[in-house]
Amino acid sequence: MRQAKLEPIRTASLSEAVEAVIRRSGERIVCGAPLGLGKPVPLLNALYARVVSDSALSLSIVTALSLEVPRGASDLERRFLEPITRRIFAGVPELDYVRDQRAGKVPPNISLIEFYFRPGALLGTPIAQQNYISSNYTHAGRDIVARGANALLVMVAERGGRYSLSCNPDLTVDVAQAMRRRGAPSTIAAMVNRNLPFMTGDALVPDDFFDVVLDAPEHEHALFGVPNPPIEPVEHVIGVRASTLVKDGGTLQLGIGSLGDAVAHWLRQRHVAPASYAEACNAIVDGDARAGLVAIDGGIGVFDEGLFASSEMFTWGMMVLMRAGVIRRRADGATGPVLQGGFFLGPREFYDTLRGLSDSEREDILMTSVARINDMFGEEGVVRRQRRDARFINTCMMATISGAAVSDGLADGRVVSGVGGQYNFIAMAHELEGARSILLLRSTRESGGRTESNIVFNYGHITIPRHLRDVFVTEYGVADLRSRTDAEVAAALIGIADARFQEDLTARAKAAGKLPSSWRIPDAVRRNTPDHLSRSMRPLAAKALLPEFPLGTDFDAQEIRLIHALRWLKAHSTGWRRLELAAALGAVPDERERATLERLGLARPRGLREALLCRLVTLGLRRDALKIDA
Q1: Residues 6 or more apart in contact with residue 511 via CB below 8 angstroms
Q2: For residue 252, what pLDDT is reported?
Q3: Which of 327, 416, 423, 532 is deepest in the core (most CB within 10 A)?
C-alpha cells in the first residue's frame, strides 16, 4: 500500500522539522544520510537528541564517512591541533553521535551503521567495527534501503528557489526513489545551507523532491574543510611514476590522500612545466620503463587533447588539473562535461573555487549518481565511448606477491576504512578497452618502531583478489602484472620491494613453488634502498622540485615546522637510545625555537613534564632542520 501524499513542509524551526520526520516516518526511524560533507549536522543532531530523550523512539543511522574535527591522541598533538582546529574549523558543527560513539555513550535505542570509515579512525572502537557493512559503493544505496530506510536527511544548496544536492548526488536520488517505490511511510528531509556550492547536472532536484525543508539562516554554517596532507619525497617519486602511465586523450579516476595529490601535482607539472617534469622523469624513471610501459600505455609529453575525468570523488587535485588545462576533454567529443563525480570533499579553497565558478564552468562538471560512474550497467555503449584509455589510480596498504591488494582492513578483521569504489574501478579496468588499474603504495611502513614491508608473501585479508591484478607502483618502480604467470608476478613485485625484504620474499616464494629454485634477485633491484633513492632525489630537492604542499595548505610556516618535528618524534617514540635521550635533555631552545615552542605553550615550561616536552620538541625541530631521517 502506497503512502498517502502529504503536503510538503517548509519550516525555519529545527524542532518542527524533527517532529515532521517522526510523524511521517514513524517511531522506528531508519535514517540514511550522505557520506562526508552532505550530512545536515544540525538536523541530524536535533533528531538524535530527540530520540535520546524518548526511549519509546528508536533510531538507526546508516551512513558513511562521519567527519569529526581532529583532536590529537597525546598532549603534544592536542597542543598543536587546538589552535589549528579553532582557525580551520571555526563555525563547523560536530556530529553528536560521533562524540557519543567514541565515549561509549550511545543509548540502546540508537544504532550507528557505516559502510566507510575515515581511514584508521575507528580501529579501536568495537561497536563501530561490529556495525560496519562491507559494501561496494555501487551497492551501498541498495543496502541502506534493505536496512528498512524510511528517512533520508541531506544538506542542500539553494539558488533562486531551486535546490541542489551539491556535494552528494552519489546515492541520494537512488535511495530516495527506492524508498518511494516501496510505498511505506517515509520522509526525505533537507536542510538548506547556502555555503554549499550550487552544482547543476543531476545534482539539481525539483522542489517537490523533499517532504520537509528546513530553511533558517541560523542553521547555515561553515563547511567541513579537509586540509591538504603533506607530500613526502617518497610520495613524490610514486607520483612521478604514476603520472607517466596516463595517456593523453584518455580518462582519469584518482583516489584520495597524499599519493593521489602527488599524482595530480605531477600530471599538472607534465603539462605546465615540461622542463621540470622531464628532469624529474630522468632522475626517477629509467630508460627501460620509458621505452616499455610508458611508451605503450602512458606518456611524458604535454596533454594536447587533455583528459576526461570520471571519478566517484571529485577532489581538489582534479579541480587543480581542470584549472591547469589537463582535464578538458569533453565526454562526447565537442559536447558533454569534462568531469563527472559522485561527491566532493576537500580544503576550504576547493569550496571557494566551486562557489566562484561561472555558469559555463559549472556546466563542465556533472555531479551525478555513483551508479553511473562506478560501473557500466545500463549505458555500456556510452561508457565505452567516453572512457577511452581509462586510468583508475588508487592506493592500497599492502600487496601480496600473488598480486592481491589489501586496501580496507587488517588480518584480524578490523576495518581501516572500507571498500568504497576501488573494487568497481579495478574490475572496470579489465572490461574497458585500453584501460588500466594502477595501485599505489609505499614499499614499507613503520610499525612499533620497526620497518615492515608493504609487499608481503600473504595476508589474512584482501580487498582486491589476485585475478584482478594489473599495475602496482612503489617508490622503487612499476610492476605490470596483467597477463603474467604467478612466477612472473612474484618476480615483478619483489623487484619493486625494499631490498631489505627481498631475500625473505624470495625464499618464501621458492618454498611455495612459486619461483624456480634457480631464480636470483636481479642486481639492479638490490639497490632498492632508502639511501640510494635519497641520493637520486637530492638534485630535485635542491631545485625545490619536491614541494611539500604543491596543492596549497592551510598551515602557516611555523605550523609546518612543528608538523615535521612532531612527525619525527612520533617515529622515535619507541626504542629511544641513550644517545637520543641525552641529546633531547641537552637541547636547550634558542630564541627562534622558543618562538615556535610558544605555539605549543612550551616556551616557558612549568614543571618537569613540560620541561621534558620542551626539550623533545626542540630536538625534533633541530633534526628536521638538519634533514636527519632515521
Answers
A1: none
A2: 98
A3: 327
Long-range (24+ apart) CB contacts under 8 A made by 586-594 are 586/615, 587/615, 587/616, 587/618, 587/619, 587/622, 588/615, 588/618, 589/614, 589/615, 589/618, 593/618, 593/621, 593/622
Q: 152 and 273 share a domain?
A: no
CB 356 within 8 A of CB 366: no
Q: HSE on the CB side for 117, CA within 13 Å?
A: 25
Give the number of domains in the chain: 3
The C-alpha angle 308, 309, 313, rounded to 5 degrees, equals 175
- Indicate the DSSP class of residue 391: E
**DSSP codes, 163-190:** EE-TT-TTTHHHHHHHHHHH-S--EEEE
Residue 53 burial by Cβ neighbours in a 10 Å radius (0-12, 13-18, 19+):
exposed
- Residue 290 sits in the same domain as residue 422: yes
Q: Which three cell numbers stand for residue 365?
A: 562538471
Lowest model confidence (mean pLDDT) among 325-334, 442-451, 588-597: 588-597
346-357 pLDDT, tens per residue?
999 999 999 999
Residues 259, 398, 510: CA angle, nearest 5 degrees: 135
| Distance of alpha carbon 546 from alpha carbon 544, whole angstroms | 6
Q: What is the CATH number of the domain that holds 18?
A: 3.40.1080.10
List Cβ neighbours of 41 (8 Å cut-off, separation of 6 or more). 93, 94, 95, 155, 221
Q: Sign of dihedral through CA atoms 89, 92, 98, 104?
A: positive
Asked if 370 and 137 count as a contact pair (C-beta separation under 8 A), the reply is: yes
Please state, in angstroms and rounded to a whole number, the distance separating the CA atoms of residues 243 and 278: 12
Q: Which of 196, 219, 242 is the last residue of a domain?
A: 219
* Domain that residue 607 falls in: 557-625
**Cross-strand bridge partners of residue 307:** 327
Give the three cell numbers for residue 164.
Answer: 541542489
The answer for residues whose C-beta is within 8 angstroms of residue 69's C-beta and 6 or more apart is: 85, 89, 92, 94
Backbone angles phi, psi at 460, to 5 degrees: -80, 0
Q: Nearest-CA neighbor of 416 among 406, 429, 424? A: 406
258 pLDDT above the threshold of 80: yes
- Does the predicted model carry a pTM greater than 0.85? yes
Residues 113, 41: one domain?
Answer: yes
Q: Which residue has the cell 618464501?
A: 508
Nearest-angstrom CA–CA distance, 430 and 436: 7
Cross-strand pairs, 542: none
Which set of grid coordinates corresponds to residue 588?
A: 636547550
As a whole number of angstroms, the distance between CA 274 and CA 253 comes to 22
For residue 347, give the C-alpha cell: 580544503
Q: What is the Cα–Cα distance from 403 to 426, expressed in whole angstroms?
A: 13
How far separated are the first and last CA of the chain, in Å rounded?
A: 68
pLDDT tens, residue by residue, 520-570 = 999 999 999 999 999 999 999 999 999 999 999 999 888 888 888 887 777
Q: What percent of the chain has pLDDT over 70?
A: 96
Same domain assignment for residues 383 and 436: yes
Please enumerate, as own/partner, the contacts of 483-490 that have beta carbons within 8 Å and a separation of 24 or more: 486/402, 486/514, 487/514, 487/515, 487/516, 487/519, 489/401, 489/402, 489/403, 490/401, 490/402, 490/514, 490/515
